[in-house]
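Translate sequence into structure tokens.
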Amino acid sequence: MQLNTYLNFGGNCRSAFEFYRSLFGGEFTFLSTYADGPPDMPPIAVEEQDWIMHVSLPIGESELMGSDVCSAFGEPPNLGNGYSISIHLESREETDRLFAGLSEGGTVAMQPADMFWGAYFGMCTDRFGVQWMLNCEQSAD
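Result follows.
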């Protein structure tokens, strides 16, 4: 079993995923717009045709997935504070690199620092409103 994260946006999914790809690397395994949808799909507003219907970006053993919620499928999403994406990293350097990228243009809740549970940990919200927790377990020397 594998648990993946799926994010919904209101027109800026492409920008968000290009940003995530620039930080995490890799290539999209799937990317389609509403214009690519089947003919029996509900009518999509002209200004929403280029919005993302689905995108997948592999990150480690998981995939970060997302889409824009167009008006034909409901109300736009409200990004809230009821969730965070937690990433477990191998090194402090990688933690610092990703934290700097994710927090640029966003807000920092906690700068990466050594924590009482033995990890190097930081929290931020990126410029798209997505909350991130970066955790690097320290080796017991």
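Note: The chain has a mean pLDDT of 92.
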